[in-house]
Amino acid sequence: MNRLWPACLLVAFAVAPALADQLTYVNDRFGTSVTFPAELFDQRLEPPANGDGMSWSSSDGATLSVWGTNNVLDFTPQSLAEHETARDTPGFEVTYHRVGSNWLVLSGYDEGLIFYERFVFGSDNVIHGVWIKYPESLRSTFDPIVGDIAASLKGP
């Protein structure tokens, strides 16, 4: 068994994808944070005036946005899922959603791009969110990592 262990490690490292430098963004206003590969989202966009979040893009058409917002409509994870799924916006289609006790995940298509979105319901009636959009042609790059990015979403 001991002789197999080094071989198993070598195989694991050979098949594991190379990890990019990670960037962790923390929003000063709401404490929302998310970690993502900095090399994939290398263009920081202009922040909104209200200080609720930040967005990044890539030269190949992917975007990542993270924010916090006051839950002024008193959404629950289930009612927000229903609200988002019922949106009547041309080109917007939710193809998957999952609801937990304090979180929600949605994915589908928006204006011809794949999207993946996660909301976490935090303290002080704040909803924390991350939204990732990318072209279908980048599915092999982004599909394996969107879950990890979304799972890194945190807030007080």
Q: Can you tell me about this structure?
A:
The structure is a single chain. This protein is α+β, with helices and mostly antiparallel strands. The protein has a single domain, classed as Protein Transport Mog1p, Chain A. It has three helices and nine strands; from the N terminus they run αβββββαββββα. A seven-stranded antiparallel β-sheet has the order 3-4-5-9-8-7-6, with helices on both faces. The protein has a two-stranded antiparallel ribbon with strand order 1-2. β7 (about 105-110) and β8 (about 115-120) form a beta hairpin. The longest helix has 13 residues, at about 140-150. The radius of gyration is 18 Å and the shape is globular.
Characteristics of this structure?
two-stranded antiparallel sheet, alpha+beta, 156 residues, single chain, 3 helices
